[in-house]
Amino acid sequence: MPAPLAFHFDFISPYGYFASLRIEALAARRGRTVDWRPILLGVSVLKVMGLKPLLDTPLKGDYVRRDVLRHARRAGIRLGRDLNAPIGNPLPAARAFCWVKQHHPGLQAEMAHALYRAIWAEGRELSTPDALATISLPAGLAPAAVAEAAAGEEAARLLRDAVAASIEAGIFGSPTVVVDGEPFWGLDRLPDVEEWLRVGGW
Amino acid sequence: MPAPLAFHFDFISPYGYFASLRIEALAARRGRTVDWRPILLGVSVLKVMGLKPLLDTPLKGDYVRRDVLRHARRAGIRLGRDLNAPIGNPLPAARAFCWVKQHHPGLQAEMAHALYRAIWAEGRELSTPDALATISLPAGLAPAAVAEAAAGEEAARLLRDAVAASIEAGIFGSPTVVVDGEPFWGLDRLPDVEEWLRVGGW
Questions:
Q1: Which of A95, A143, B37, B61 could be B55's S-S partner, Cβ–Cβ 3.0 to 4.6 Å?
Q2: How do B5-9 and A176-179 pair as beta strands?
Q3: Domains assigned to chain B
Q4: For the DSBA-like thioredoxin domain, which residue ranges apply (chains A, B) (predicted)?
């Protein structure tokens, strides 16, 4: 059985959201599955790389806002969020995701989609654990249990470990897909991921 | 007559080099020409955006080195430069280009290719005006005249004006193609540029 594609993403990343909508179909076309791996751009970009948040970077921020809307328009994806509004605290969503992945691994994809959809399609504010209990969660997850888990130490530790592992692996951006050890950063590279899978590298 | 594609590039940018090899054919397929517009990443990235040089950025630098070699391998482009070696002072090449564009506008594409080829295919060091006289220049350009121009005040002023105009236009990365007012940043976006030209936008 070939290894899953490692899909690294941050819930605050619109390009990660766009890629999350395509990665499973891409993997399935080549007989692969997806391992969903949360990262924190606040750690990789701000602390390790010493850069600024993308949307707060002069020149680039304006371009990215334009580009995100342009991509959504072309792909027919509804964005329910004002790109100029602060995205809020990414920790509760990422921690809840890690907890679900740990305790309900079969629901990890559904959980990632639920959180991305709430943030990007519905424009929800998920800055607190309690907010997680108010979104549409995968069947089989009790909202109160998810909120409690997101506030707990286990979820915090799982996320810390996941983020440390991603930095150790050199992952810095969202989305990044690693296929058989080969990293591809950026939504634009999904076609390259598929081609790499098809021909076995170059 | 439709407007030329504005091709913004820095000679120190490997992705700009890769794109420079494709932009004219792309434009020609849609009945366009190319206006070659030098930028300086040392101004946009370092001064205006407050970021670091790409290859000196933790995590990203390693990825980019790997990605540049991977792209060159796939596209069959020979790279004659060690990506870990300093690229040198970009000003003489950019100034010489501006002077040629001003005084021999019909040679601008050939001059861009000559400089890119010297730096990236041949691994030449073009940090001084005199070095420019030692590379293979377009027919019709006297090497000594190019070197003298690159050291002169007119070329410096032309480049300053070009860079100021690019910043004013929000251009920050190499390559960036602007088609009828719509900017596309990155080598990966050349297919989008072509699609935009084909369908007239989205």
A1: B61
A2: unpaired
A3: 5-199 (3.40.30.10)
A4: 7-195
